[in-house]
Amino acid sequence: MDNPLNNDQAHAADASVENVAAETSTESSSLAPQEPTTTTTPPPLSKKAQKRALKDAKWAACKEQRDAKRKEKRLELKLIRKHKIEEGLIPHRPRVAPGQVITSVGIVIDLDFEDKMRDVETRSTAQQISRCYSANKHSPTAVHMHLTSFTGAIKQALSRSDPNHINWATAKCPAEFHAEDLITAFPRARENVVYLTADSPNTLDTLEEDTVYVIGGLVDKNRYPGLCFKKAQDLGLRHGKLPIGEHLEMSTRKVLTINHVFEIMIKYLETKDWLQAFLAVMPARKGGQAKPDAASAEPSSRGGGGGGGDDANAATGKDGDETKADREDALLTESGAQDGEEDEPSEPYSRRGR
């Protein structure tokens, strides 16, 4: 006969063994190898990239100091100008030329190249825009000035270098700002728009009434040759170039800034004489001399197109054609605010243009 006590003990022992086995199985499953988790770590920066990041951080940290210095410089230049006017050293110039006539000609600065410019080039573009506006409002014969694709970095740069630009749209000699691109802002672009590009085979004869001429707002040190010409072709727009080669012999390469092209065009509208316009605007250091037969030669009109910058890059020139003295003079004669910051020197321009 079995002993009941021994049977109970046997059953308890079996249950204990089963519990231990279950716990062991659970622990084994918890200790089973898991799928490895993949973590993507960015590759380490090169030494050059580290230096650039450090430089950018220092530049950002000093922004307030730079803004304060610009403001101080503007006030100083205004005071110098005021003293010179009081002493009779320079004439007082009204904000808008007396009796100014605004023609039916329009000039657009196409700013749709922002992604192709460095920070210093963006700032240079903003400064040149300010000079264009200043030249237009002081000219006896002004044009309708437009800025297209006016957004992003260039808009911010202009806000810093010339805070008064917010008043341009309502001034006596207005400038219009368009956030839209060229085609959206000018629906009839294919009918009455001429894109200025040095690569165009069409040389300007005159500035046509009721026509809009486009200057590419790009400072790029010739990294993108032919860019504006290609854009004009892709958009199906007329294109052309200024007749610089027909009228001038240059001792240096024909590098023009945005404001040089703009000023030549408004000077031509005033004088109706290309040679006079070139000589009045071209910096003396370029050594531009009238060709012996320039007075009698008539510029060709191939293809019926309009303006542009011949061997100079009319789609906007490079920075560096203007010396520090030129910039300070522009600041002294400009009633609006400008920062006086030096532009980065330009590399020599090739004949390929945009």
UniProtKB/TrEMBL annotation:
SAM-dependent MTase TRM10-type domain span: 93-289
Sequence segments annotated as region (Disordered): 1-54, 287-354
Listed InterPro entries: MT_TRM10-typ, MT_TRM10-typ_sf, tRNA_m1G_MeTrfase_euk
Domain of life: Eukaryota
Species this protein is from: Geranomyces variabilis
Single GO MF descriptor: tRNA binding
GO annotations of cellular component type: nucleus
Comp. bias (Basic and acidic residues): 318-330
UniProt keyword S-adenosyl-L-methionine present: yes
EC number(s) recorded for this UniProt protein: 2.1.1.221
Position of the signal peptide: none
Reactions the enzyme catalyzes: guanosine(9) in tRNA + S-adenosyl-L-methionine = N(1)-methylguanosine(9) in tRNA + S-adenosyl-L-homocysteine + H(+)
Keyword Nucleotide-binding tagged: no
UniProt keyword list: Methyltransferase, S-adenosyl-L-methionine, Transferase
Residue ranges with Low complexity bias: 21-40
GO biological process, one term: tRNA N1-guanine methylation
Gene: TRMT10A
Protein name stated in the entry: tRNA (guanine(9)-N1)-methyltransferase
